[in-house]
Design brief:
- It is a single chain.
- With 92 residues, the protein is an all-alpha fold.
- It has five helices and no strands.
- Helix content is 70%, strand content 0%.
């Protein structure tokens, strides 16, 4: 996968989240991921995978969570974490 397509997928996902929540693009929808995952970890009985997702999200570089432009490795790591979160939420 090329860096451009990884960055485009991540950007498209953030724009989608912003639009679905009524926030302007670039507002920082990523800031809502941590409280969302924390809430799910505390609310669900079978929360092991979501706790690992929260840990992986917290270990992402600050440039990802603040909406900055990440390097190739950071973008690939972010896509992997987002895919893991997506799979965990599909099981809820």
């Amino acid at each position: 996968m090329q860096v451009c397509s990884v960055w485009q997928r991540l950007s498209a996902y953030c724009v989608y989240v912003c639009a679905s929540c009524g926030m302007p693009p670039g507002f920082g929808a990523a800031a809502y991921m941590r409280p969302l995952l924390q809430n799910l970890c505390l609310s669900l009985g079978d929360n092991e995978e979501l706790c690992y997702c929260l840990k992986a999200w917290m270990e992402l570089p600050q440039s990802i969570k603040s909406g900055g432009r990440p390097s190739k490795e950071e973008a690939l790591q972010a896509v992997a974490v987002i895919n893991r979160i997506r799979r965990a939420l599909a099981q809820v």
